[in-house]
Amino acid sequence: MINQTPMRELVQFVTITTDPERDTPEVMRDYGPAHGLDSVNWLFLTSGERPEDTTRNLAERFGHKFTRTEDGYQIHGVVTHVIDRNGRWQANFHGLKFDPTNLVLYVNALTNAHGPEGHPEPGWWDKVRSLF
């Protein structure tokens, strides 16, 4: 829904795997097109050749915990985090069934804020990416 608005140019989506053994760079590269996601502003991260727990450590910084079952599957919650232009964690949207209109309205408020806090400081996306 965001990509159907002028916010498309202001928003960056990031999907992070916590299972890089299965979610190889090739799998992640194919994930977006397979699900109709716009690669113009959507990144798909996996650890690649780095240690297995790199993306898991990032997810744990945002409060996620993981349990691996006996058959090797991971059990974890699904959360959409909203990080503002200054790299600050602003909100969570839990699960896959939240009303996407609420996310759009929240992001719209962030992208249209006025004053010093509403304008991106230089290198804001680099700050977010440094978490990876």
Could you describe the 3D structure shown?
By secondary structure, this protein is α+β, with helices and mostly antiparallel strands. It has a single domain, classed as 3-Layer(aba) Sandwich (Glutaredoxin). It is built from 4 helices and 6 strands, in the order βαβαββββαα. It has helices at about 25-35, 55-60, 100-110, 125-130; strands at about 15, 40-45, 65-70, 75, 80-85, 90-95. The protein has a two-stranded parallel sheet with strand order 1-2. Strands 3-4 form a two-stranded antiparallel ribbon. Strand 1 (about 15), helix 1 (about 25-35) and strand 2 form a beta-alpha-beta unit. The protein is globular.
Descriptors:
132 residues, Glutaredoxin, two-stranded parallel ribbon, two-stranded antiparallel sheet, 28% helix, globular
In short:
With 132 residues, the protein is of the alpha+beta class. It contains 4 helices and 6 strands, in the order βαβαββββαα.
Q: What is the radius of gyration computed over CA atoms, rounded to a whole number of angstroms?
A: 16 Å
Task: Point out poorly predicted stretches.
Answer: none
> How big a fraction of the residues is strand?
15-25%
Order of helices and strands: EHEHEEEEHH
Overall 3D shape: globular
Mean pLDDT: 76
Residues in helix, %: 25-40%
Tally of helical segments: 4
Question: Based on DSSP secondary structure assignment, what is the total number of beta strands?
Answer: 6
Distance between the amino and carboxyl termini? 26 Å
Q: How many strands, which pairing sense, and closed or not: the largest β-sheet? A: 2 strands, parallel
Query: What count of domains describes the coordinates?
Result: 1
Strand arrangement within the widest β-sheet reads 1-2
Name of the CATH class:
Alpha Beta
